[in-house]
Specification:
Helix 7 (about 160-175) runs antiparallel to helix 8 (about 210-225) and helix 7 packs across helix 9 (about 230-240). By secondary structure, this protein is α+β, with helices and mostly antiparallel strands. Helix content is about 45%, strand content about 20%.
Length: about 240
């Protein structure tokens, strides 16, 4: 009997670990409902894994690709981020139990993506939400997702920075701040696409301006490392103007 190569064995273990983190009974029931409603045809493979959620490529009955984000029931990361919920007037009555907190972050991302879609932001389009399973547009070329900006850098130089800041300004005008913006949460296609809106807050949030300044500061520092420099105060002024 031949043994599997170590690399193949490792890949199988990693895939099992990735899937077991999110495919519990509740998530499987929700995915089953999406299949029965013909919102999904298949759930293919993970394209992104994180502490709070995993994202899978999936397909629809008409053959199009979508992204399925499943928030994990392990809530340690969420409890450290309760400020993003408690200060948001849309989520004032959230119960402090595991199930409600996880669902709240999924609902929060869906609502924030709806705002982005109305504002014309380069971001995933929200299609459907059931409990902690979010279906949205797939950002990629062919059957592969776009890389994140930390992997490839700005592909179009200063144009990419202008596009990102323009999207931040449009969000601000619609009363939304991303609150977790960095080179890790931007996918690079024909233009930069902003992703991961679970922490996004409305501008009425008591810390919204601090989050906005942090977002912009992180992006400007990243582009400065690539020789593209902007003044933080002036940039924030243009966004708020």
């Amino acid at each position: 009997m031949t043994k599997k190569p170590l690399k193949e064995d490792y890949q199988l273990k990693e895939r099992f670990k990735t899937e077991s983190e999110v495919f519990d009974r509740e998530a499987l029931l929700d995915l089953s409902k999406l299949l029965k409603k013909q919102i999904l045809q298949t759930v293919d493979y993970p394209v992104s894994t994180g502490k709070e959620a995993n994202v899978f490529r999936a397909s629809t009955p008409d053959g199009k690709y979508v992204a399925v984000k499943i928030y994990k029931n392990e809530t340690a990361p969420f409890f450290r981020k309760m400020d993003y919920l408690e200060g948001d007037p849309r989520f004032e009555r959230i119960k402090h139990n595991d199930r409600d907190i996880v669902r709240a972050f999924a609902r929060k991302e869906f609502k924030n993506l709806e705002i982005c879609e109305r504002a014309g932001i380069h971001s995933p389009k929200p299609y459907f939400l059931i409990n902690r399973v979010l279906v949205m547009s797939f950002l990629g070329e062919g059957d592969l997702p776009y890389p994140t900006m930390n992997m490839v850098g700005p592909l179009h130089g200063e144009k990419d920075l202008d596009s990102i800041l323009d999207d931040v300004r449009k969000m601000y005008r619609k009363g939304l701040v991303h609150a977790d913006l960095s080179e890790y949460n931007i996918m690079m296609g024909d233009v930069p696409y902003l992703i991961d809106f679970g922490q996004g807050v409305v501008t009425r949030h008591p810390h919204a301006m601090r989050f906005l300044e942090r977002d912009v500061g992180i992006i400007l520092k990243f582009f400065a490392r690539h020789g593209i420099k902007r003044d933080l105060a002036k940039t924030l002024g243009c966004i708020k103007d």
